[in-house]
Each structure stands twice: as structure tokens, then as C-alpha cells.
């Protein structure tokens, strides 16, 4: 049995992986949560990784409170960056391959075309900086790792933008939503499918595990305003949505104005057909309704 460790299984992505893990044949998954594994405890994190002869480690853990990270810098650094050094060192010691999830916030959002993996990073927030530090730590200490940068993640699980807009749309008659931040909503179920696809390809020797940085999101582009309209239209929510500029809704952490990701690399190497964001949104909303 192939041993696979998933760190951070209580979050959106971790739970989507749990739902799909049976697709990896002849494997045994171990799932940890924040309650069972504190990734800021370097000794416990190391012992957990070295406990079994894991062939793959999937890290879904992250400090994702973007605005709070501006004041909780040490905690964000410990979870997003320092823990990745430990994961890198411990996984390398047992020759495990790592798949780690990062973010479009490693870019400052001043580009005018989709970001490639070779574009210079320049995070504008503490959250983005700590996530970039984590990428670099992992690759330094275990070069046999894949970093998957994604954007605007949502799911039927946990707290996310989709659920918030549903709740607010049902509670209010009017909403103001930012229209000058452009990216791509990403369904966590699709990202989970991709992570497990990479592992299956390696196990079946159809496509070798190729370490490095990859971009993954759903296809297409949207603003938060477009995203909200699509959510409400699918569910028949009649709340009036008004577009506003970022300057009209100031936040402690600056957001990228443009963070669309170019996914050519991962599509070519792993032969992926990535779903359009509205199709995946509809799938998620149908599951929520069910």
C-alpha cells in the first residue's frame, strides 16, 4: 500500500481530497487536522512525517486570514513559511514527494496579462510574502516538490466567498462588490482532482512526477462583482449588486488588482482539461442545494 499524508485535512481542499482519495488505488491516506497536528510544533511535525514511509505528502495547511496577517505576522510566518522548512527537511529525509498549495498573492497584481511561473514575484501583503517564503523554503529543503499556486478558492466546505455572498444576498436588499480586482474563481474540488491526478500519473508511470512551480485555477476571468452576480443568478437571489472600486472598500492588506494565472505549463505536462469557472461554480452550488 502506498502511504500518503495529507496535512490540513479539515479545510476546503483537504475535505475535497478526502472525498476523492479512493481514486488512488492501492493507497492508504493519513489525514491530519489542526487539532491533531500543530504545524508550528516543529518536533511533532517532524515526528508525524517520519512516522510512516510516506511516498507523497500533500500540504493543505495555510494561514489564510489575509487582513489579520498584517497584525499577526509571526503566526502567519510560522504556518505559511517556517512550517514549510520543517516539511521540506522531514520529507526529504524519508524521500517523500511533496505537493504544496500556494497563492496568486505572491504577485502584486500590476501585470496586464496572465502570470506565468517564470514571472517575477512581488507580494504586496504579509500573507503573500509568507506564502512566497514557504514556497522557497520547501523547494530549498526538498527539491522533489511541486508547488501549486491557485486563486480565489471556494468549496461546499468551510467559510469562503461563495457562502458569504449567498448569506448576504439572502439577508440584504443591496450589496456593494468590488469590480476592479480581476482573477479566476477556483473550485477546490477541481484542484483536489488535479493533485490526485498528478499522484496517479506518477504511480502508474504514465507521466513522471515533475517538481517545480505550477499555476492552477479554473479557466476564464472574473471580478468579484462578476463572481457574485453568477452566484446569485444561479440561485435566483434577487439582491441588487452594485460595482464599487477597491478604494471604496479599504482593507488592511492590499489585494492584487490583476492576478489571473497562466496554466499552460500544468496543462501541457499533465495533459489537463481545466473546467470553465462558471461550470464549476454551478456544480458546487448544485451540491450546496442538494
UniProtKB/TrEMBL annotation:
<protein>
    <recommendedName>
        <fullName>dTDP-4-dehydrorhamnose reductase</fullName>
        <ecNumber>1.1.1.133</ecNumber>
    </recommendedName>
</protein>
<dbReference type="GO" id="GO:0019305">
    <property type="term" value="P:dTDP-rhamnose biosynthetic process"/>
</dbReference>
<keyword id="KW-0521">NADP</keyword>
<feature type="domain" description="RmlD-like substrate binding">
    <location>
        <begin position="3"/>
        <end position="288"/>
    </location>
</feature>
<comment type="similarity">
    <text>Belongs to the dTDP-4-dehydrorhamnose reductase family.</text>
</comment>
<dbReference type="GO" id="GO:0005829">
    <property type="term" value="C:cytosol"/>
</dbReference>
<keyword id="KW-0560">Oxidoreductase</keyword>
<dbReference type="InterPro" id="IPR029903">
    <property type="entry name" value="RmlD-like-bd"/>
</dbReference>
<comment type="function">
    <text>Catalyzes the reduction of dTDP-6-deoxy-L-lyxo-4-hexulose to yield dTDP-L-rhamnose.</text>
</comment>
<dbReference type="GO" id="GO:0008831">
    <property type="term" value="F:dTDP-4-dehydrorhamnose reductase activity"/>
</dbReference>
<dbReference type="InterPro" id="IPR005913">
    <property type="entry name" value="dTDP_dehydrorham_reduct"/>
</dbReference>
<comment type="pathway">
    <text>Carbohydrate biosynthesis; dTDP-L-rhamnose biosynthesis.</text>
</comment>
<dbReference type="InterPro" id="IPR036291">
    <property type="entry name" value="NAD(P)-bd_dom_sf"/>
</dbReference>
<dbReference type="Pfam" id="PF04321">
    <property type="entry name" value="RmlD_sub_bind"/>
</dbReference>
Amino acid at each position: 500500500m502506498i502511504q500518503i499524508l495529507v496535512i490540513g485535512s479539515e479545510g476546503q481542499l483537504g475535505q475535497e481530497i478526502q472525498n476523492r482519495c479512493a481514486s488512488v488505488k492501492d493507497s492508504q491516506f493519513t489525514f491530519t487536522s489542526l487539532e491533531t497536528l500543530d504545524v508550528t510544533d516543529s518536533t511533532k511535525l517532524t515526528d508525524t512525517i517520519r512516522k510512516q514511509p510516506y511516498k507523497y505528502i500533500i500540504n493543505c495547511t495555510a494561514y489564510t486570514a489575509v487582513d489579520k496577517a498584517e497584525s499577526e505576522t509571526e503566526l502567519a510566518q510560522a504556518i505559511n513559511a517556517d512550517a514549510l522548512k520543517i516539511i521540506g527537511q522531514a520529507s526529504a529525509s524519508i524521500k517523500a514527494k511533496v505537493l504544496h498549495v500556494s497563492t496568486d498573492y505572491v504577485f502584486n497584481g500590476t501585470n496586464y496579462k496572465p502570470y506565468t511561473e517564470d514571472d517575477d514575484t512581488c507580494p504586496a501583503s504579509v500573507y503573500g510574502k509568507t506564502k512566497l517564503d514557504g514556497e522557497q523554503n520547501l523547494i530549498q529543503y526538498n527539491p522533489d516538490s511541486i508547488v501549486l499556486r491557485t486563486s480565489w478558492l471556494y468549496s461546499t466546505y468551510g467559510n469562503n466567498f461563495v457562502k458569504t455572498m449567498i448569506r448576504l444576498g439572502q439577508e440584504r436588499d443591496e450589496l456593494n462588490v468590488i469590480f476592479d480586482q480581476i482573477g479566476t474563481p477556483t473550485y477546490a474540488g477541481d484542484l483536489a482532482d488535479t493533485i490526485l491526478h498528478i499522484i496517479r500519473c506518477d504511480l502508474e508511470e504514465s507521466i513522471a512526477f515533475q517538481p517545480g512551480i505550477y499555476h492552477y485555477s479554473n479557466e476564464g476571468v472574473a471580478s468579484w462583482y462578476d463572481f457574485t452576480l453568477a452566484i446569485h443568478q444561479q440561485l435566483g437571489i434577487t439582491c441588487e449588486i452594485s460595482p464599487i472600486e477597491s478604494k471604496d472598500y479599504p482593507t488592511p492588506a492590499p489585494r492584487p488588482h490583476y492576478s489571473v494565472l497562466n496554466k499552460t505549463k500544468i496543462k501541457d505536462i499533465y495533459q489537463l482539461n481545466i473546467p470553465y469557472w462558471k461550470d464549476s461554480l454551478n456544480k458546487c452550488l448544485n451540491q450546496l442545494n442538494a
